Amino acid sequence: MTNPTDRVLSRAERQAMPVALGVAVEIAKHNGVCIRPVILRRLDTHTGTTEDVNVPCGTTMEAKCPPCAKRNRYLRMAQCREGWHLDAEPSITPDEPTEEQRWLVEFRADTQAQRDAAEKAGDDTTDLDAVLAGLDEEINAAGMRGNLLGRTTAKRNRSTRRRQDAPDLPKRVRQNTTLGRTFTSSDGKAYRPSLFITLTLPSYGKIRAGQGVPVDPDTYDYPRAARDALHFSKLVDRFVQNLRRVAGYDVQYFSSVEPQKRLAPHLHMAVRGTMPRAEIKAIAAATYHQVWWPSVDEVRFEGEHLPVWTERPEHAEPYPDGQDGDYLDPATGELLPTWREALDRLDADEDAEPLHVVRFGPQVDVQGVLSGTPDADQCIRYLSKYLTKSLGDTLDADNPAQRAHTARMTEALRYEPCSPACPNWLRYGVQPKNAKADMAPGRCRGKAHKPEHLGYAGRRVLVSRKWSNKTLSEHKRDRRTWVLEALGLANEPVDPHRYVWKPVPAGDGDIPSLALRLLRMVAERQRWRATLLALQEQAIGQPVQDLSAMRGAA
After folding, report:
1. Residue 400, Cβ neighbours under 10 Å: how many?
2. Is the separation of the CB atoms in 475 and 72 below 8 Å?
3. pLDDT digits (tens, 9 = 90+) for 13-29
């Protein structure tokens, strides 16, 4: 419908007017409503009725959906706070198997016996293998975790002997507990302190103070910085292993990975329990991770001279990983070694050296934190400070020197292999794991090669399994239960098999416009907030202007 006033307004005046959809989006952001809701059609199998439901997108990036990102940040803060200073051992006891689960496992045992007998007799086992694969899916769908098959490929064993340039670590007798030591003061009060640890990577060259850019870009070690960023997550895993070995108990942690201005990732870690600072620093100095990958010192293929893909003949023996083709040298026709063959050659070479060794830098910060103190709250806010931003979004985009530094780092990552399946291995004469046609060096779609991730492809939040004795979904359900109870709404468990959810096609004519859906969600959110504010006024006996914590929970 055309607005009559548009006829008397100039084009410039019309262009200056705000767009209605944009205003609706801003209102949704202000009220904490998802601005990218996904429409799902829900079928009630009991009544046969269907209903279109707006489901929040659930993104963790503020650039895509600020309300959902903020809600996820509040959720992570609650998870960190709840598990940091536990005073009782978390109990994780698996549920007893149901009759259906028992029957599925027993049936699979019978089918496995039939398959083994058929294989021993030399019969075709294709049909039985398909039945077993289907049973494995049903077993997981029935609420069981794990895999009955276990490891199906041989594990490559490397020497566990420590490097000569790394100091040895003490090893204490392991205690079956996740709680740290308790200290009693002279007045009889018990304290259970914990730690807040910050770990950084080493220097790659002199940096301008406050800017994070190298003084001399030509001497800055970008290749090493790129490889350290690619394998930083493995180094963190090694640190946790060494920390538990030295501490003597099952150390639990909540950590987040954030970028420094110089583009290197660093780690903030909340640790339950306490240890001497000198020991923490010694553990960091003794921690390293060796990357046992084929060498990338020699560039064999680049530019127009690239390996050629060829399909494997139908009668050829398939690779164990299911690869259905090979890359070969276009000049000689020689097949490039597969990833498995390249590792076999590396294992056979007694003088082989790891491709890269990543270590922490000397800057290790260790702080003691007590429960319920302002320092604990500040550390929790610091842990979640950048969770709603990608690594690249935290940089100063208006600084030309910072942009140039980011471009050089991105170029250093362009041809660096990020994983065994990275197409960049073709540049160095090795077929990537599970190689496919149309691979080319410098065109890896992996997360690590994207400028916004700066080489780090791991998870931004790392939480140990016994941190709060709850999964993130359980924390979310707790917050939802609190809101529903405050609103006086029923929170009865729903039969998971009652509803069937399906995506709504984009061309469905029954879908309301995005603006209309946002306005309906805003109206519902405002009703919730009014009820919550009224409840709080009733509880404390005075008017309340806002309730940000409840808004985050809702």
Report:
1. 10
2. no
3. 888 888 888 899 999 99
